[in-house]
Amino acid sequence: MGAAGLFVLLLWGLGFVSGMTGGGARNSGPGIDFRNNSIALAASQEPPQLDSTRTSDQVSNFVLGHIMEGLLRQDEHDEVVAGVAESWEVRADGATFRLREKARWSDGKPVTAHDFVFAWRLVVDPKTAATYASLLFPIRNAEAIIAGKMPPESLGVVATNDRQLDVMFERPVPYFAKLAAFTTLFPVREDFFRSRNGSYAANAEDLLFNGPFTLASWEHDASFRFEKNELYWDKERVKLAAVDVPYITTDPNATLNLYRDGKIAMVGQSPGLGSESLKQALISGWPIYQMRDGSVWYLQLNFRPERLTRNRNLRKALQLVVDRGEFVYKVLKTPGYVPAASVFPVWLKGAEKKFRQEYPAPEIAVDVTAARRYLALAKQELGLAEWPPLVFLCDDTPSSSKQAEYFQTVFKEKLGLEVRIDRQIFKQRIAKMQAGDFDIVSAGWGPDYDDPLTFGDLFASWNPNNHGEYKNPELDRWVRTAQETVDPHARMAAFGEIQRIMIEDAAVVTMYERGQSYVQDPRLKRVVRRTIGIDPDFSNAYLEPN
């Protein structure tokens, strides 16, 4: 997920200052294990999908980013550098990647250009139903293949030989090198994939690895463990022997207690410390670090014909009763969070300044009176005698439940709408969201590459991540403009129009841009935190006694 440099957070408003004396006392334990040169962590969720051609969630991307590597990768300064490819060239009509001879799979066989051709064809194959298939639209014939109009073999990517991959573009793609580091474009070896008989990536033994670590074990819903990959071409860079994740829990108090007892080396790596956990960490005297993770969070609405939220007047009513400032500063009360006025976060670069400086988001003032007028119109248009309950899908974590309950109260008190909260474990929430089994779902999006298009095409009618199936031909036309032109000013103007349409049409109800506060054992060094890319990244980390 661009760099997000770390700094000690001083929270005077809570009455405490932390991080100035080296941290409060903690018990020793296996969180930092010098004897075995390993660390232990707690994860908030089970990785739902470790098939790189299909995955779309942050937890799975975190795992895949440690056990796999693409043509290119991000270094600790967030620069795109050589990965499996030792050199590359991106041109207006395509790109050429030359693979390094030392790149190996974990069974000792070489990583070849054919492994990328096979993986990318899987991504665009309609049978795969890859959520991120649209990322490959810039490659020749990709869009037609995804639409079922051409076979996957016609994709504009060729293994000229084992060590040269040639990519033909449908249109110029100046950011393609950044895309080449993303999870969806990782390699998959065909013979191994087919040997799993449909169970590829279902378990640790159903995966091959070519990254800094291997997935040594994976006990579903319980634990997983990375171990240093001795066949990785850049193994000298990897200092830790293992990263153990023996705990998977959504309970912030349990996680904080694990850190206090020395059983894990970090707390709050994602989604960050909540307000109560943060207070406890401050009282304990631990150094508190903060970063902005680059994501924007919103209420995604369902536009399917059978859903009431397809009605614009209902969506406008919901939009006009949400006070984002109250929600962020009085309900969440988590440092680093700021109200979101747009699906384009404030840090995105524009043509000459920040995008949101060049194209400020239209203001949305809370107006309950106008909201009730919109609601009355919606009721009339939908032909309802009474409003049935709306289904609000969310995770079963304390934070997600707290947010859902806030909106449940707001929509009841200000609009008289009943909202039924559907709490699900992370994996099931993803499944229900992808199936469209909701009226409202609490969702977020983090950047996949360093370009506004990573947010700009999210609600295009063809994007599989558009889980509410929002369709607006005008928005689609502006997305095409942003995709097809190389003029930076014309592209930013197109994104400005996309932003306007999203707000005027109440396509989503924006909530917040997320920050993360976290604690980390001071003996653990060079953990890379990112806005764009794998976060956190332990491939450069090492242990050092105080």
What are its keywords?
5-stranded mixed beta sheet; Dipeptide-binding Protein, domain 3; alpha+beta; Dipeptide-binding Protein, domain 1; disordered N terminus; 3 domains; 546 residues; D-Maltodextrin-Binding Protein, domain 2; single chain
Total discrete domains:
3
CATH architecture of the largest domain: Roll
Helix content: 25-40%
Continuous helix count: 16
CATH superfamily of the largest domain: Dipeptide-binding Protein, Domain 3
* Global shape: globular
Tell me about this structure:
With 546 residues, the chain is of the alpha+beta class. The protein has three domains: 7-44 and 215-287 and 522-543, D-Maltodextrin-Binding Protein, domain 2 (3-Layer(aba) Sandwich), CATH 3.40.190.10; 67-195, Alpha-Beta Complex (Dipeptide-binding Protein, domain 1), CATH 3.90.76.10; 294-514, Dipeptide-binding Protein, Domain 3 (Dipeptide-binding Protein, domain 3), CATH 3.10.105.10. It is 28% helix and 20% strand. The protein contains 16 helices and 21 strands. Strands 1, 13, 14, 15, 16, 17, 18 and 19 form an eight-stranded mixed sheet that branches. A five-stranded mixed sheet has the order 2-3-12-11-10, with helices on one face. A four-stranded antiparallel sheet has the order 6-7-9-8, with helices on one face. A hairpin with a 3-residue loop joins β6 and β7. The longest helix is centred in the C-terminal third of the chain and has 18 residues, at 398-415. The chain starts with 6 loop residues before the first strand and ends with a strand.
